[in-house]
Amino acid sequence: MKGSQTIVIKCGGSIVNELTSSFFQSVKALVEEGNSVVVVHGGGPDIEQMLKKLKIESEFVDGLRKTSEDVLDVVTMVLSGKVNKNLVTMLQQHELKPVGLSGCDGMLLETEAINTEKLGYVGEVVHVNSHLLTELTASNYVPVLSSIGVNKKGQRFNVNADLAAGAVAQALQAEKLLFVTDVQGVLVDGDLMEELTKADIDELIEDGVIYGGMIPKVQAASEALSNTLNEVHIISGKHSFVNENGHMVGTAIKHEKGGNKNDECFISNVSTIGSSY
Ligand SMILES: Nc1ncnc2c1ncn2[C@@H]1O[C@H](COP(=O)(O)OP(=O)(O)O)[C@@H](O)[C@H]1O
Ligand SMILES: CC(=O)N[C@@H](CCC(=O)OP(=O)(O)O)C(=O)O
């Protein structure tokens, strides 16, 4: 896939500290081929660790971390501090031009509370400042966004990073959205599902085959599908994005099965999955 596509890459907290050189080479190849790349990241395990250290309790409600004022401060420090700066420096080491930002900066992720009584300071993105992102990507910068949102009154919110990435992809009318995580894709009885539709996803969630942190990922993926975004990929950050033919690996979430699967060379000039293990 050569040219000027917009590609949103969500790096999950499960993998953000273990991304391999093959992963960074894949990102670099996408930028060098003239694409606009925006990175959105989470950091669930790092948040969990810091909350434990500070002896602050938190619980998950419907897959989202119920967020008190204290939890919000920790989430902000961990995501926009440690995780964001680690990712920025790693990208720099791979000769990219990352700019670390939170969703508060430039009101990148304007956010409103989902249900204050049930979830506290957990928000959903209602508007993305696409202009700032496109200004940066036009100059070959790679914006690296932590999933902290803000409302017009200046209140910060904790946003699930999968949902933040979906909102960014929709706002930018991205052609590609990649969820990079710690598994090869969606697995059923240990087998990788190469393609899934929304109907498949609903059934797999209902049957308990897709659970936990995979739920917001597949839901954000299917909701982000549009006229411009025909496939959303869930892939592992432990290796290259592509196989030996230059085609995407992992699970593709699509409007319907079949179609253009593997018709397109996603990236050329990058090490392939076979060479990276
Ligand atoms: N059907 C499934 N296939 C693969 N992984 C699944 C599935 N259902 C649940 N999971 C879990 O989802 C996890 C990825 O979600 P999560 O830990 O939230 O990742 P991230 O931090 O990358 O967003 C996997 O490590 C796995 O434990
Ligand atoms: C509201 C909510 O649940 N926010 C998440 C934000 C981080 C995140 O989403 O990180 P992952 O990419 O590791 O899932 C949290 O507090 O853990």
Automatic annotation (TrEMBL):
Q: Where does this chain mainly localize?
A: cytoplasm
Record-annotated Aspartate/glutamate/uridylate kinase domain positions: 6-236
Q: Which UniProt keywords apply?
A: Amino-acid biosynthesis, Arginine biosynthesis, ATP-binding, Cytoplasm, Kinase, Nucleotide-binding, Transferase
Q: Name one Pfam family in it.
A: AA_kinase
Reactions the enzyme catalyzes: N-acetyl-L-glutamate + ATP = N-acetyl-L-glutamyl 5-phosphate + ADP
Extract the CDD domains matched here.
Answer: AAK_NAGK-like (cd04238)
**InterPro entries in alphabetical order:** AceGlu_kinase-like_sf, AcgluKinase_fam, ArgB, Asp/Glu/Uridylate_kinase
Binding residues for substrate: 43-44, 65, 158
Q: Where in the cell is it found?
A: Cytoplasm
GO-annotated molecular function: acetylglutamate kinase activity
As recorded in UniProt, its EC number(s) are 2.7.2.8
Q: In which pathway does it act?
A: Amino-acid biosynthesis; L-arginine biosynthesis; N(2)-acetyl-L-ornithine from L-glutamate: step 2/4
Query: Residues at site: Transition state stabilizer?
Result: 10, 217
What functional role does this protein have? Catalyzes the ATP-dependent phosphorylation of N-acetyl-L-glutamate.
Family, per entry? Belongs to the acetylglutamate kinase family. ArgB subfamily.
Q: What is this protein called?
A: Acetylglutamate kinase
Q: What species is this protein from?
A: Priestia iocasae
Gene name, Swiss-Prot/TrEMBL = argB
